[in-house]
Amino acid sequence: MLTHIQGLHHVTSMAADARQNNAFFTQILGLRRVKKTVNFDEPSVYHLYYGDGQGTPGSVMTCFPFPNIARGRPGVGEVSQTVFAVPEGALGYWKDRLASHDVAGLEDSTRFGDKRLHFTGPDGEGLGLIEVAGDARAPFADGPVPAAEGIHGFHSVTLRLRDTVATAEVLRFLGYREVARKGAVTRFAIAGGNGADVVDLEVRHGAETARLGAGSVHHVAFAVTDHTAQLKAREALMDAGYQITPVIDRDYFSAIYFRTPGGVLFEVATNDPGFARDEDSAHLGEALKIPAQHAHLRDRIEAILPPLTD
Predict the structure, then answer these.
(1) In terms of DSSP bridges, do strands 32-38 and 46-51 run parallel, antiparallel, or are they unpaired?
(2) How far apart are CA 68 and CA 120, in angstroms?
(3) Do residues 64 and 22 make contact, with C-beta atoms less than 8 angstroms apart?
(4) Cα–Cα separations (whole angstroms), residue 47 to 27, 214, 258
(5) CA distances to 12, 34, 282, 288, 293 from 278, in Å
(6) Is the pLDDT of residue 30 over 80?
(7) CA-to-CA distance for 33 and 8, rounded, in angstroms?
(8) Is the residue at 310 inside a domain?
(9) How far apart are the C-alpha atoms of 157 and 217, rounded to whole Å?
């Protein structure tokens, strides 16, 4: 069992329209855009990062907006919902706010005693808010959402699977333990984590396999402190028989990836160097940052990418 994982690092989803995506996460959810860069493998497409004031691991939603991409098909083998933590008593504010912006899919629920508000993003992505008492993480305070009701970071992701047994073993190997079970949902949590500590597994026997597209989560990343911890995690995963990629430099963290038996793509990402490595922390997400291997294409990239705001 690993002892290096600290909780979630980021969640990366697919989108169809960069402008709409940016407006939803910054103007409706009130997150800060902490980095505006491009997809390493397809530099004609943005890679946008949204989170708390500094893009702290455990708070960052990242998006690949591919123009005119087809809508994803929900199913098994995917992250079906990404849930953010808000202060206790804030769900009433959020229900009114999301309704005033005509956000779809609003639904109240309770899971394992926690109040939740479900909704969908502009591409149909499954999102949620949950009240968490005593969350010490600071929300982004300079956006349209007051800090008293602001998003602190992730609470959890839900993985929808045809069978949960093998994926549960992966989570246990990563250091998670089962803490609750009710009906089709089993909850795993990591002790002493970064606040984004929970992964829920939902079993859907006989459901069709998800199809990746707009609104789909591409992968979910787990946090480790640094490169040394990542290498130890990689070695342990390889020794356990998982097929792991080499370490890949993503500029703001390094990453390794592996596909879980249930079909979900997992990443293990470092907390360092962070989003302020190439931009003053007061101006995160303002300038377009181009990875070094694509720097010679800057003029062409800038001509292709649509503006995110007026």
Answers:
(1) antiparallel
(2) 19
(3) no
(4) 18, 14, 21
(5) 21, 11, 12, 11, 15
(6) yes
(7) 18
(8) no
(9) 10
Residue showing tokens 């160097």? 273
CA dist., res. 96 & res. 50, Å (int): 22
**Residue 15 resides in a domain:** yes
Q: Is residue 1 part of a domain?
A: no
Domain range for 157 is 8-304
Unique residue bearing structure tokens 């953010």: 84
Domain tally, the chain? 1
**DSSP letters spanning 158-216:** EEEES--HHHHHHHHHHT-EEEEEETTEEEEE-TT-SS--EEEEEE-TTPPBPB-SBT-
Q: In whole angstroms, what is the distance from residue 237 CA to residue 239 CA?
A: 5
Residue 118 lies in a domain: yes
If residue 20 lies in a helix (H) or strand (E), which one and from where to where?
A: helix 18-23
pLDDT of residue 29: 98
CATH code of the domain in which 46 resides: 3.10.180.10
Q: What confidence category does residue 1 fall into, taking pLDDT thresholds of 50, 70 and 90?
A: confident
How far are the Cα atoms of 111, 150, 200, 229 from residue 115, in angstroms, in the given order?
Answer: 7, 16, 15, 35
Whether the full predicted model's pTM is greater than 0.90, yes or no, is yes
Q: Is the pLDDT of residue 310 over 80?
A: no
- The answer to whether residues 79 and 220 touch, using CB atoms and an 8 Å cutoff, is yes
Which ranges of 220-308 does DSSP label H, i.e. alpha helix?
A: 227-239, 298-304
